């Protein structure tokens, strides 16, 4: 029933990037890649902790029984913003900033 409702809602909404279907498998791959890169960073800077927290929260949302697409989209935007604002050189090297911003943008339909 909820899948039908969300399908109906998407069919009637304007074609904005936020309304696009999110490929949850791509989001899962993104989370795995980020976690692997963050695991290589031993520093405990605020940037790194905040990014790890964002990734953990996105993983929790994604692994809920029926992840609401709007919540996944919200967390992806938040994660993208966090990556763009990262200032720690160690973090920037570890997460390959440009790569993740591009991947998140593609998932969100922004590029």
Number of strands: 0
The proportion of residues forming helix, as a percent range, comes to over 70%
SS element count, helices: 6
Task: Supply Rg.
Answer: 15 Å
Report the principal-axis shape.
globular
Biggest sheet character: none
Oligomer: single chain
**Ranges with pLDDT <50 over ≥5 residues?**
1-19
String of helices and strands: HHHHHH
User: What average pLDDT do the residues reach?
Assistant: 77
Structural class: mainly alpha
Q: Report the β-strand fraction as a percent range.
A: under 5%
Instruction: State the distance separating the first and last CA atoms.
Output: 32 Å
Q: How would you portray this structure in words?
A:
There is one protein chain. The longest helix is centred in the middle third of the chain and has 17 residues, at 46-62. The chain is mainly alpha-helical and 111 residues long. It has a domain at 38-111. It contains six helices and no strands. The protein has helices at residues 2-12, 24-39, 46-62, 69-85, 89-95, 97-108. Helix 2 (24-39) runs antiparallel to helix 6 (97-108), helix 3 (46-62) packs antiparallel against helix 4 (69-85) and helix 4 (69-85) runs antiparallel to helix 6.
């Amino acid at each position: 029933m909820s899948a039908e409702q969300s399908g109906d809602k998407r069919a009637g909404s304007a074609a904005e990037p936020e309304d696009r279907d999110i490929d949850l498998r791509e989001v899962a791959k993104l989370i795995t890649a980020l976690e692997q890169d963050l695991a290589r960073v031993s520093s405990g800077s605020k940037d790194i902790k905040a990014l790890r927290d964002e990734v953990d929260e996105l993983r929790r949302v994604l692994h809920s029984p029926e992840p609401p697409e709007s919540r996944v989209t919200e967390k992806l935007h938040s994660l993208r913003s966090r990556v763009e604002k990262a200032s720690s050189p160690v973090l920037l090297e570890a997460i390959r900033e440009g790569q993740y911003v591009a991947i998140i943008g593609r998932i969100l339909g922004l590029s």
